[in-house]
Design a protein that fits this description.
The chain has eight helices and nine strands. It is of the alpha/beta class. The structure holds flavin mononucleotide.
Length: 243
C-alpha cells in the first residue's frame, strides 16, 4: 500500500513511480476520508510519500494518522520530498507512526523542486528539469536498495522544534490575498485539500481561519491572482510536469 500527500505533484509522481515497482493500492491522504482501518496483505510494506513541511510533516498528514488504523503492516518505507533540506522530517514522521502503533519507517529524503515561494524562488525550467531528473535517478537507487536512509542528527532535531513551531503561524489564512486578475474559475477551491476556500458570488473567500498551508491554491491559480503576503508576488509558480 502506498500513501501519499502532494500539493504540487512531486510526491504524487514519486508515489506513482513506487507503484510501478510495487503494484498495489495508492491512497491520496487528502482524499482518504475519516476513520478507516486499512488491512494490508500479511507483512506487506507500507510506503508513505509526503512533502517536507517546515522540517516536519504537514498537519493533514498528522491528522490522517490520528484517524486511520492499519493491520498486518510488515515494514514502513517513507520518502520525504523536499526543496533542499528535510531537517527533522524523519523524526517527526516516526513520532506520528509510533503514536499509531506502526513500526518505525526507513526514511529517505528526496530533493526535488521547491514550491515554498513564501521564502524561496522556484528555479527556472531548465534547472527544474535537471533537479527532477536527478531526483528520478535517486528514487531508482532508493527502490533498488542502493541509497542510505536519512537520519537527522540530534542538533537538527532540536532546531526542528523551533522551525516546525513556526508552521502554526503560517497556517493562518488571513495572509492570503486575491488580486483583481482572479477570473473566478474555482481552481483554488477545487485543489484545496482541506476545503478552506469557497467561491462566493464569483469571488474567492477563505472560509477557515487556518489551512494546511500547502500553497496548492497559489500554485494552481492560472492567472497568479493568489498570493501569500507580499513575498510571493510575481514569483514563478510550480507544478511537477508529470501527469
Ligand atoms: C508549507 C511548506 C513548507 C515547506 N518546508 C520545506 C522545508 O522545510 N524544507 C524543504 O526542503 N522544502 C520545504 N518545502 C518544499 C516542499 O517540501 C517541496 O517543494 C516538495 O517537493 C513539494 O512536494 P509536492 O509537490 O508533492 O507538494 C515546503 C513546502 C511547503 C508548501
Amino acid at each position: 500500500m502506498i500513501l501519499y500527500y502532494s500539493s504540487t505533484g512531486n510526491s504524487r509522481h514519486v508515489a506513482r513511480e513506487i507503484g510501478r515497482r510495487h503494484p498495489g493500492e495508492i491512497i491520496d491522504m487528502a482524499e482518504a476520508g475519516r476513520n478507516t482501518c486499512h488491512i494490508l496483505a500479511d507483512g506487506e510494506t507500507l510506503f508513505i510519500v509526503t512533502f517536507n513541511c517546515f522540517w516536519g510533516v504537514s498537519r493533514l498528514v498528522q491528522d490522517f494518522f490520528r484517524r486511520h488504523r492499519f493491520a498486518n503492516v510488515g515494514n514502513v518505507v517513507a520518502v520525504i520530498t523536499c526543496g533542499g533540506f528535510p531537517g527533522a522530517g524523519d523524526h517527526a514522521l516516526n513520532r506520528i507512526l509510533r503514536a499509531n502503533q506502526l513500526p518505525e519507517a526507513e526514511v529517505y529524503d528526496l530533493v526535488m523542486v521547491t514550491n515554498y515561494v513564501v521564502l524561496h524562488e522556484v528555479p527556472e525550467p531548465a534547472v527544474q528539469r535537471q533537479a527532477l531528473a536527478a531526483a528520478d535517478r535517486r528514487l531508482r537507487q532508493i527502490l533498488d536498495g542502493q541509497a542510505k536512509p536519512y537520519r537527522s542528527p540530534p542538533l537538527t532535531r532540536l532546531l526542528g522544534l523551533l522551525v516546525h513551531g513556526l508552521y502554526a503561524l503560517f497556517r493562518r489564512t488571513r495572509a492570503f490575498t486575491v488580486s483583481e486578475a482572479c477570473v473566478g474559475c474555482g481552481a483554488c477551491a477545487r485543489n484545496c485539500p482541506v476545503q478552506a476556500i469557497e467561491l462566493f458570488q464569483g469571488k474567492v473567500k477563505w472560509r477557515k481561519k487556518t489551512c494546511d498551508h500547502c500553497l496548492s491554491c497559489l500554485h494552481s491559480c492560472p492567472v497568479m491572482a493568489i498570493n501569500y503576503g507580499r513575498r510571493t508576488i510575481g514569483k514563478r509558480r510550480y507544478h511537477h510536469p508529470g501527469p
